[in-house]
Amino acid sequence: MSNESERNTHEMVEFRYSCPVCLSPRLKMVTGMCQHRMCTGCLYNREDGTLKTSMSKCPTCQKPAVFPLKRPDIPEDNILIQKMLGVTQCPNTNCFTELWEWELSDHLKKCSHAPVKIATLRRKSPRSSRSMSVLSPTNNETKIFQHRTRSQRLAKQWETVSNTHLRK
């Protein structure tokens, strides 16, 4: 597959299978009666699992009451399908970022949950002839993921638009 056709395939998959609200790929997606798919994080309240009031209509087609009022259990085969499409989770401990497989290498370079790296210094230990190893934390804490900030900004814009339409 050429780079251009591979890029086109990735863009098509990203468009079709990412949540249209947060613009991120998710393993746990809910399909509404209108056949649009949203992630459970955008649809449901974390505390009680009820549908968010801003999601009383489908954000894509504006049809009312298309998603269940309570967060459903997502079948394992649906999660497996998302994984087969290329959705993966960061392998670093305590990093729960879900992203496309083709974005994983860039994410790992910036992940703030990356394990501490061991750097070997060139100078010799005063008591021995061996090089000293010291722990040096990665500089990733100061870096912010561009795709996450863009997704958050667009999600806030979408929420503002949705709330405006709900008031009318």
UniProtKB/TrEMBL annotation:
Keyword Zinc-finger part of the UniProt annotation: yes
Annotated RING-type domain residues: 19-62
Keyword field: Metal-binding, Zinc, Zinc-finger
Top-level taxon in the UniProt lineage: Eukaryota
SMART domains the record matches: RING
Keyword Metal-binding: yes
Name of the featured protein: TNF receptor-associated factor 6-like
Organism expressing this protein natively: Limulus polyphemus
Gene label: LOC106467621
